[in-house]
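INTERNAL AUDIT FORM
Audit reference: QA-55
Scope: verify that the stored structure record matches its stored sequence.
Auditor: D.O.
Record contents follow.
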Amino acid sequence: MDSIMHSMFHLPLPVMEKILRPIIVYLCLIVFLRLFGKRELAQLNPFDLVVLLSLSNTVQNAIIGDDNSVSGGIIGAFSLLAINWLLTWFLYRSPRLNQTLEGSQTMLIANGVVSEEALKKETLTYEELVSVLNKNGFNDPADVDQCVLEPNGTFFVKGKTPTTETVHSRELMQAIEQLTAQVTAMRAELAGRQ
């Protein structure tokens, strides 16, 4: 029992190294993801997904080193969570630095016109853009007022014309207003007769 406890909780590496390894890897990953663009975060195709999944496996040994102990895992997890919280808190307090580190949004479509320059900048193909539009309920870039790739890898898509649901909702609201007016008129007429 003593040897089990020893192998589970004995730290073969110094505690400070266990704290510094995940912090260094975390900061490097943040810089690399910023350098390689929003595309990786957007996961537009299977290749992007494979890169992100492989990335965690690639840096695993750099984070834990030669340590498979429970204590080492807990210290590494705590270090990752702590550096993430500290960085998020610091960036919340420094909006200008947050904007610099996060980057800016990229307008891919403006008033139905696709920006080829923006697609090249973000290494997006026209087909990938159309796929994003399809996921948002649009078939043609001409139907889109704005399509923006946000710094966090999400797409904001705003249509030019109202959707079928919006038109239907407006029609229903108009019908309800007409019925309400008719009922009010009928009540007034009945009240006048009495």
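Auditor finding: record pair retrieved intact. DSSP finds nine helices and four strands in the chain.
Action required: none
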